[in-house]
Structure to design on (645 residues):
């Protein structure tokens, strides 16, 4: 299928593909097994300008958009979802600054993010606030020229590795969801430390860690947007980045599919390559259909986001949900095509299948996405009446 | 600090075959690459640029197509590129090549000049040192590590058969480098975008005020009388097994053919 990529887009895809093939594939099994953060790969991504893709040129980036980010994320995900999660979470943490930062904040933070000198993380989730993000209990209390942060964020991707954290905390509990604010917190801030590092089923080349605030001192100037805009910042950020999670689903599905086809062509049973059996053929055909459909939806959604449209919440939720469900389904079926070999660590399939599961959970579970999609449907249909 | 790296575009030897009738290289359809040693030279220069700050020019002598090789180095991070291309340069041997490159280096100006150890097609390893001689500056060959570098001094390791030498020199200096030196970086996205647009400067013998008689085929003392592919010997025996077994087997073969 030709998606009519322009020269720059092809170049971005090819560069990401080369990094994936040469730098990620050879080490992905080891990163997974030893649960190692991919420091060397991050350096290569930085040197290749991959972190600056979606950052405007005036701040040292390449000035591209969600679509180009999807192309890069898809290629990285085809090789390893752990690595692509570390990369994509960086964008998730950066969007609040990009979308809501003042000129000073952008000048201060974006150039180092674009060059990959500094990594970013996004901290919303807490023990009692998962899908129900409004339940966050971390507080940011104004005191003179500072906010004093108290509370614990859990399961934060890039926690500990990142230098910059965009944190959602309650500045006014009495106002409920309207009492949350978004703050930029630098690593090394007094009263800010790291807690438990999680042991995960998959994406083990990505770090997931607790952030602990015990009277964390954050300068007042580090607020993003205004007091009380925290949830708007968080929701707009997630809307913006969700197409990237969809691209992860497409990428991991594509990677698993290629393994399965190559295996089916060479595995002989009953004196024939197993690809000659119709049951296998139909599974492979279904995988190909689902992947192409998911890719088409993710690309259209990302291009819609980049078109300057404002109402992309529904379409980015649709792209995330469909493409990540495809990621899970295709990795599961691809493993089935490979039988026992697929289940062994000698092949990348078992890792791909373990990795794919997270996509249906983070950045809003696929159940929550369906809630969101239907809320929009209800609105649209009542408006049209 | 000004650095010049000399690169050569070569046929990808993993793909090269020889026409047994004419005994010449079959170049048709063989992709061209940057001489692999020269990639390490470019990386060394970029490393110095990253550490000290420097202006890096990449230089090649070759046909117009060699521009592609230069653009690749721009994508890696080189500042400028110069292509020496002129009918008068055709047929240059190592003497004429080095003579021409030296004139270009003088024309552009450089504190450090870096070459690959050798080109994988010509394989003489003469061009680097010869450029230094024409420029009347010192050179250090087989550089496997840059220990330290500043604007007025460079200390390197020179790979030897057993171990290494440590050599310190004062620029201007020419280095030739081996693969052990570094890992060439990938081209960056910004580099690739710049590489697409940049104007490659082209120089001819007129720009360098070189005398015709010192150039190309005319200026080349080397005369290639014949090129041939070594005959494939088929009657080879591989002796395997433990050292003792191999020695016993070898002795019995040598006895059988009355060598011993
Ligand atoms: C590896 C990993 C990395 C993460 N990285 C980050 C990060 O960088 N930053 C960050 O802020 N967060 C991060 N998270 C948190 C992630 O976004 C949450 O896990 C996610 O939003 C779901 O919350 P929960 O796990 O608490 O599930 P819960 O909210 O407890 O949900 C449990 C189940 O109930 C369902 N459910 C809940 N409410 C409803 C409803 N109203 N209707 C229908 N079904 C419902 C859910 O779909 C799910 O199946 C990460 C999580 C993981 C596992
Ligand atoms: C098939 C074949 C046919 C040939 N035919 C002839 C012939 O007919 N007549 C003749 O006189 N010679 C001929 N030559 C020799 C050819 O001219 C040499 O290859 C050339 O002079 C460079 O020498 P080298 O390849 O040994 O490079 P080396 O000395 O091994 O290269 C060392 C380094 O010098 C630099 N360098 C070398 N060449 C260049 C360049 N052009 N531009 C920039 N930097 C460079 C690079 O940094 C390189 O790593 C032939 C060579 C081959 C392979």
């Amino acid at each position: 299928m030709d998606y009519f990529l322009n020269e720059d887009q092809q170049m971005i895809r090819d560069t990401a593909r080369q990094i994936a093939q040469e730098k990620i594939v050879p080490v992905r099994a080891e990163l997974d097994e030893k649960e190692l953060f991919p420091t060397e790969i991050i350096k290569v991504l930085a040197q290749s300008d991959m972190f600056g893709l979606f950052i405007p040129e005036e701040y040292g980036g390449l000035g591209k958009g969600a679509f180009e980010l999807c192309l890069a994320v898809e290629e990285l995900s085809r090789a390893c979802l752990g690595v692509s999660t570390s990369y994509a979470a960086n964008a998730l943490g950066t969007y609040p600054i990009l979308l809501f930062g003042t000129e000073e904040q952008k000048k201060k933070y974006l150039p180092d993010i674009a060059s990959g000198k500094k990594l970013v993380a996004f901290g919303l989730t807490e023990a009692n606030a998962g899908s129900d993000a409004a339940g966050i209990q971390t507080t940011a209390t104004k005191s003179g020229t500072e906010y004093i942060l108290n509370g614990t964020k859990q399961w934060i991707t890039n926690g500990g590795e990142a230098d910059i954290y965009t944190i959602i905390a309650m500045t006014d509990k009495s106002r409920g969801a309207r009492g949350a604010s978004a703050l930029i917190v630098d690593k090394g801030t007094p009263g800010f430390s790291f807690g438990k590092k999680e042991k995960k089923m998959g994406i083990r080349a990505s770090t997931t860690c607790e952030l602990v605030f015990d009277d964390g001192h954050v300068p007042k100037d580090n607020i993003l947007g205004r007091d009380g805009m925290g949830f708007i910042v968080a929701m707009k950020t997630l809307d913006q980045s969700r197409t990237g999670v969809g691209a992860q689903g497409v990428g991991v599905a594509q990677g698993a599919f290629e393994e399965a086809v190559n295996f089916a062509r060479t595995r002989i049973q009953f004196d024939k390559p197993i690809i000659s059996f119709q049951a296998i053929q139909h599974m492979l055909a279904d995988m190909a259909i689902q992947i192409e459909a998911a890719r088409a939806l993710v690309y259209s959604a990302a291009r819609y986001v980049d078109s300057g449209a404002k109402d992309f919440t529904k379409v980015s939720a649709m792209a995330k949900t469909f493409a990540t469900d495809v990621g899970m389904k295709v990795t599961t079926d691809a493993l089935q095509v490979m039988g026992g070999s697929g289940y062994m660590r000698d092949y990348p399939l078992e890792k791909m299948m373990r990795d794919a599961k997270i996509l249906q959970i983070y950045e809003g579970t696929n159940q929550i996405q369906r809630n969101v999609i239907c809320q929009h449907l209800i609105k649209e249909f009542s408006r049209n009446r | 600090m000004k650095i010049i790296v000399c690169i050569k575009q070569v046929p990808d030897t993993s793909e090269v075959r020889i026409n047994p009738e004419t005994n010449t290289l079959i170049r048709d359809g063989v992709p061209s690459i940057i001489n692999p040693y020269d990639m390490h030279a470019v990386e060394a220069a970029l490393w110095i640029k990253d550490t000290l700050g420097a202006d890096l020019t990449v230089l090649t002598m070759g046909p117009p197509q060699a521009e592609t090789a230069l653009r690749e180095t721009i994508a890696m991070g080189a500042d400028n590129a110069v292509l020496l291309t002129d009918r008068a340069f055709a047929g240059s041997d190592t003497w004429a090549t080095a003579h021409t490159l030296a004139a270009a280096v003088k024309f552009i100006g450089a504190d450090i000049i870096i070459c690959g150890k050798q080109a994988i097609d010509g394989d003489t390893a003469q061009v680097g040192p010869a450029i230094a001689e024409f420029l009347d500056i010192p050179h250090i060959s087989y550089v496997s590590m840059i220990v330290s570098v500043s604007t007025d001094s460079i200390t390197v390791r020179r790979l030897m058969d057993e171990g290494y030498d440590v050599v310190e020199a004062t620029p201007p200096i020419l280095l030739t480098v081996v693969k052990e030196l570094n890992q060439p970086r990938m081209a960056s996205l910004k580099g690739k975008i710049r590489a697409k647009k940049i104007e490659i400067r082209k120089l001819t013998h007129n720009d360098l005020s070189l005398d015709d008689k010192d150039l190309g085929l005319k200026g080349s003392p080397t005369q290639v009388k014949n090129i041939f592919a070594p005959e494939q010997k088929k009657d080879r025996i591989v002796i395997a097994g433990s050292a003792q077994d191999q020695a016993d087997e070898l002795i019995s073969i040598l006895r059988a053919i009355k060598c011993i």
